[in-house]
Amino acid sequence: MNEDYQQARLRLLLQRWQQQGTLAMPRYATGPGNRLSDVAGVKVGHSTLADGDIQTGVTAILPSGGNLFTHPLPCGVAVLNGFAKPAGLVQIAELGRLQTPILLGNTLSVGTLFTTLARHAIEHNPELGRTLPTVNPLVLECNDGWLNNIQAMAVTEALARQALDHAGQDFARGSVGAGRGMSCFGLKGGIGTASRFCPQLQATLGVLVLANFGTLSSLTLDGVQVGPAIEPLLPGLAPQVDAGSVIIVMATDAPLDSRQLVRIAKRAGAGLGRLGSYWGHGSGDIAAAFSTCQQPDPPEDSLLESLLAAAADATEHAVLDALLTAEPVSGFRGHYRPSLRQVLDRLAANVNL
User: Fold this and answer.
1) Which residues span the domain enclosing 49?
2) How many structural domains comprise the chain?
3) N or C: which end of the chain has fewer CB within 10 A?
């Protein structure tokens, strides 16, 4: 691919950004809000700490309004690269059931978030761990230690409970909740979301990401490798290797069983690859997918085609959403991450459109 062609594609991408405020166009129809909560019953909440060296938070995903301990949901997990410290994946891999809401946070907050979910389950099931079995909380994490003083362990049970208690269908994205201190492709990362409607099954698939991964030189937008064009504009930018991690949570109202949900979750990798990620050595890249149908009558696998494609497409666009909605953040030791919006505007000013 010659340099003139690359420049022409870059100009077209930047023209679209200036005229429409968009980058990659969805390949398939979106849900009504283009977010995880387009799947009925699913809610998201955040609690955020933004104070000097402390730039962190918690994001809660509530799959339903019911008692998940007594009425678990089908769930599947795909570990794309396992450099990660989650809680709850082993039992989900074994039994294929989600027993609690999902909490996202930073790496050193996993124990606190686990305890929060255990207490939450006990409140609704007083005999838990006594006459009833124990519970399997699902906690997923990324390392926000570049922008956040992670050793301060500032995430508390009260903060996590706030995220659970304030979850709703409408929720913020970008530099909020667990995404507050996250970096993505050397820029500001965080929380992003997208959804797709799958006519083959008359079902919706929603995706939420915690984006904290990628090298700037690899960043690819709508098939255009823009990282090399951006790097000269940010000579003082601290580099990021593809080692920070990404969490992808998928929800669907399609009546899938846990095995089929694993297949859907794996397709998150295709979406990450379109953006230029290769799941680096030190990255914890994990996708979890659940169905809101508690007792599914699963369709034939041949009917999953639209959901497989939607999972890749929505993952790509959820990461883009995180990049485009994130605000720039300064934090621990004065470390700074600019927003992609800032960079695109500067790039457009430097490219002959």
Assistant:
1) 26-350
2) 1
3) N
Cα end-to-end span (Å), the chain: 20
- Indicate the average pLDDT of the chain: 95
For the record, the structure tokens of 248 come out as: 């992808």
283 is catalytic: yes
Please return the burial class of 130, using the count of CB atoms within 10 Å of its CB with bins 0-12, 13-18 and 19+.
exposed
Residue 199 falls inside a structural domain:
yes
Residue 123 has a pLDDT of 97
Q: Is residue 286 part of a domain?
A: yes
Tell me what percent of the chain is helix, strand and coil, each rounded to the nearest 5. 35, 25, 40
- Give yes or no: 306 in active site: no
What's the whole-number mean pLDDT along residues 310-314? Answer: 98
Does the active-site annotation cover 51?
no
* Separation of alpha carbons 272 and 55, rounded Å: 25
pLDDT in tens, 111-162: 999 999 999 999 999 999 999 999 999 999 999 999 999 999 999 999 999 9
Alpha-carbon gap, residue 226 to 229, rounded angstroms = 5
Q: Residue 276, SS3?
A: coil
The single residue of 253, 285, 313, 321 carrying the catalytic annotation is 285
Query: Of the residues 37, 245, 258, 339, which is catalytic?
Result: 245
The pTM assigned to this predicted structure is 0.97
